[in-house]
């Protein structure tokens, strides 16, 4: 009915049961790219933490939990769990994956401060290389806030309204690169805004709040656009699936796309509120630290003033 391209697309997707809690746990796979990337990244991070502690230095447990559990844990769940098993079957499942990879994972990794950990534990030569990269013109240009903001908000439009998304449905390589792209673009934008690391592109807190506020309308507008359009995203692929064995339980493709747009809209606002909470807490903490530094500076000035006042009578008194 749909021709050869649709049959190829149909056979490229493994058959999965109707989504359920049991299916989420039973459909996990040892996908090579996510598994290798997660194991190596988590292993290197924990190695750095153990190295710090072995020499008696402290590393906050919260940072380790943020990076290992929330960051890389969310990445692995999104790309290798039962959720990932449905990311080429249901656009709505892919949209959940999209939001986790582009917002939750970058924020969590940034709060883990891996660059700071690397600078404190790497040998001299690799540390110099890392500092050279951080201070390079390329890093400064790529992390320029308006550019990073533009890449972050325009990337989803390019994904869903060009042939890029269709290519990700038919190519495993493009599909995996899309996952990494979502994380990297999210990290490029959010790392300087909410991260702890000394990376280029950092701006004052008022401007950070403004940039975070500006992302909300773009998520909402994109979500509403996807919900309202009559043309299906990945139409050939998703319609072909409904001609196969999974057609007995797959929802109507238009209904699933409407749900996907709603997920993008609603979750973008919800995660945005979390971002505001994190940013506000960092702003308050930074203000308190600045107040303490100012108090110490005033105390030192007062001590020096008292010392000068104590010396003046001695200097003015007549010598015998």
Structure description:
This protein has about 325 residues and is an all-alpha fold. It contains 15 helices and no strands. The longest helix is centred in the C-terminal third of the chain and has 64 residues. It is elongated and about 100 Å long.
Features:
mainly alpha; 15 helices; 78% helix; disordered N terminus
Q: What is this structure's SSE topology?
A:
Blueprint: H1 4-12, H2 21-26, H3 32-54, H4 61-80, H5 82-85, H6 91-111, H7 114-121, H8 124-134, H9 137-142, H10 145-160, H11 164-170, H12 172-194, H13 205-228, H14 235-241, H15 253-316
- Oligomeric state: single chain
Share of residues in helices: over 70%
How do the helices and strands follow one another from N- to C-terminus?
HHHHHHHHHHHHHHH
> Which structural class best describes the helix and strand composition?
mainly alpha
Quick structural gist:
The protein is built from 15 helices and no strands. The protein is mainly α.
């Amino acid at each position: 009915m749909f021709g050869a391209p649709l049959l190829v697309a149909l056979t490229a997707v493994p058959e999965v049961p109707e989504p359920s809690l049991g299916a989420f746990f039973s459909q996990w796979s040892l996908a090579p790219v996510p598994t290798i990337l997660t194991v190596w990244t988590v292993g290197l991070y924990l190695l750095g933490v153990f190295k710090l502690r072995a020499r008696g230095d402290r590393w906050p447990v919260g940072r380790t939990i943020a990076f290992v559990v929330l960051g890389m844990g969310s990445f692995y769940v999104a790309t290798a769990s039962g959720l990932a098993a449905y990311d080429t079957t249901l656009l709505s499942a892919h949209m959940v994956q999209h939001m986790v990879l582009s917002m939750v994972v970058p924020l969590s990794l940034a709060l883990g401060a891996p660059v700071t950990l690397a600078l404190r534990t790497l040998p001299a030569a690799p540390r110099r290389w890392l500092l050279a990269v951080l201070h390079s013109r390329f890093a400064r240009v790529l992390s320029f806030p308006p550019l990073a903001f533009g890449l972050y908000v325009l990337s989803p439009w390019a994904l869903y309204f060009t042939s890029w998304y269709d290519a990700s449905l038919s190519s495993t390589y493009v599909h995996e690169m899309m996952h990494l792209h979502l994380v990297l673009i999210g990290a490029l934008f959010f790392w300087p805004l909410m991260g702890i690391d000394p990376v280029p592109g950092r701006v004052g807190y008022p401007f950070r709040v403004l940039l975070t506020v500006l992302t909300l309308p773009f998520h909402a507008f994109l979500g509403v656009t996807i919900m309202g359009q009559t043309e299906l995203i990945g139409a050939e692929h998703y319609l072909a699936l409904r001609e196969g064995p999974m057609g007995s339980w797959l929802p109507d493709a238009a209904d699933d796309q409407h749900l996907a747009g709603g997920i993008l809209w609603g979750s973008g606002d919800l995660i945005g509120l979390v971002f505001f909470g994190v940013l506000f807490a960092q702003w308050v903490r930074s203000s308190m630290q600045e107040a303490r530094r100012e108090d110490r500076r005033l105390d030192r000035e007062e001590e020096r003033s008292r010392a000068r006042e104590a010396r003046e009578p001695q200097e003015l008194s007549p010598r015998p």
